[in-house]
Design goal:
The protein has 310 residues and is of the alpha/beta class. The mean pLDDT is 91. The structure holds adenosine-5'-triphosphate and magnesium ion.
């Protein structure tokens, strides 16, 4: 197992704020690794430390097998980076921007032309390559930012909130491009505050809050850890003490919240317990006027997890 990024005890302090707090991060080569956390969790700061744009207060960083990470120029040249909300020069055309960056990476002549063409096609901007960046939509600018990050054939691509501010279609487009980047064998490390986004594009994820790691693992593993049994909502014609007792006595029932004739039943196991619940209610002489299963979204579970560790 080769490691693309490894930090140990990584810490960055800004005055009174501990932006990154003893962070142990491990990103395997060839994975798409999501770096998940709410606003202010320390994602951008961690990325800047990895890139060598900031110096840590303590801890170690190893990137692509070298200590010190992006502080070494030979390591930095193997990393593609798209900053959070990339600010691209409005007065250039999309093609010009990619040509200039290609030249910085030492490409010229047909090599440069071909590389720019390949990237424009990859991000779906071939037809708009000769328009000014200032005339691009946000989604197009973001896609150009992705193309920019891919110049120089990087082994590791770091994307800071690649779909920030995009509509659902724009987000899908970015996701498709990320999948293509990964299929070329590059390691992708991307930050996001959206669990749903990470879930759809990443194979692994690390969740942080207040600079500290909360949980990490493969997506399937995380979903398993995060997933909780369902909640059943019932509505009755009339509530009696017998019914309340009958529901409470069910072995899988963990907690019940009664609100008038309605109840939220929290189950301690996974499964569909509607039949068992209705049987218990009917046996206790009740009449059910409504019943539905409330599945908690992963987004909600993510928020719950973060609150719990606060
Ligand atoms: N240059 C700086 N000077 C002072 N404080 C900073 C600096 N950069 C970041 N911080 C603080 O460090 C903490 C982490 O910020 P960071 O930008 O890394 O979070 P983030 O996870 O990227 O958040 P977001 O999702 O909003 O982009 C915040 O409290 C922020 O205010
Ligand atoms: Mg950020």
């Amino acid at each position: 197992m080769d490691i693309a990024i490894e930090t140990k005890g990584l810490t960055k302090i800004f005055g009174r704020i501990i932006a990154v707090d003893r962070l142990d991060l491990k990103v395997e080569v060839g994975t798409v690794h999501g770096f998940l956390g709410p606003n202010g969790a320390g994602k951008t700061t961690t990325i800047k430390l990895i890139l060598g744009l900031l110096k840590p207060d303590s801890g170690s960083i190893n990137v692509l097998g070298f200590n010190g990470g992006g502080q070494r120029i030979d390591v930095r040249s193997r990393i593609g980076y798209m900053p959070e909300l990339p600010k691209l020069p409005n007065f250039l055309k999309g093609r010009e921007l990619l040509e200039i960056y290609s030249e910085i990476y030492g490409l010229s002549g047909m090599d440069k032309v071909n590389e720019v063409k390949r990237l424009l096609e990859l991000v779906g901007l071939r037809d708009r390559a000769n328009d000014l960046i200032g005339h691009y939509s946000k989604g197009m600018q973001q896609r150009l930012g992705l193309a920019q990050a891919l110049i120089g054939d990087p082994d590791l691509v770091i994307l800071d909130e690649p779909s920030l501010g995009l509509d659902p279609i724009g987000m899908v487009e970015i996701r498709e491009i990320i999948k293509k980047i990964a299929s070329e064998g590059r390691t992708v490390f991307l930050s996001s505050h959206l669990l749903n986004e990470v879930q759809q594009v990443c194979s692994h994820a690390t969740v942080i809050n207040k600079g500290m790691k909360i949980i990490e693992g493969s997506i399937s593993n995380l979903l398993e850890k995060l997933s909780k049994p369902n909640e059943v909502i019932i509505e009755l014609e009339k509530v009696t003490p017998e019914i309340i007792k009958a529901i409470r006595d069910l072995s899988f029932v963990e907690k019940v919240n009664w609100i008038g004739n309605k109840a939220e039943i929290f189950c301690s196991k996974k499964g569909d317990f509607r039949a068992d619940i209705s049987r218990a209610i009917i046996n206790a002489g009740g009449i059910i006027t409504g019943m539905r299963v409330e599945e908690r979204s992963l987004e909600e579970l993510f928020i719950e997890l973060i609150k719990k560790r606060d």
